[in-house]
Task: structure prediction
Amino acid sequence: MCMDHSVICRCGKHDASFNFKNELMPPETIEALYCPECSNGIAVNPVTMIKDNGWVIQYDMDVAGLYSSRLPYNEKENLSPELLFDEGYITWRGVYPGDHIDSAEEREELAELAKVNPKKYFEQMKSWAINRMLRLKEEGWRKAHEG
Ligand SMILES: [Zn+2]
Result:
């Protein structure tokens, strides 16, 4: 189970949906969120923050520490913003903020094709997924580089 939780950035212009793997970490672990506009000029502290393509997530590592006993031993020992993000404990819903909304829209466009040409639809769906990931990787999103 992944709980969905939306957070508004510091300047209030944007928000991002987060996933919490197995709900091991509470939403309070997110201390602040900065969009590419309001992250301008802030000093990124690697002890509490992670940067992803202009977005910055600031974690409350004290809260994360309180809940870290729920993590596997080797992860507990290496608790860091990178671990929280990369292992999916507190991470974007999708590859980047807004991904689940964009991909649903793109998929809907393709769904039209499914009605007229199912075979072509499946081919396009496959290349859509591959090309999409390549594009996101090029754009520099952290989760597109996984694996
Ligand atoms: Zn902002």
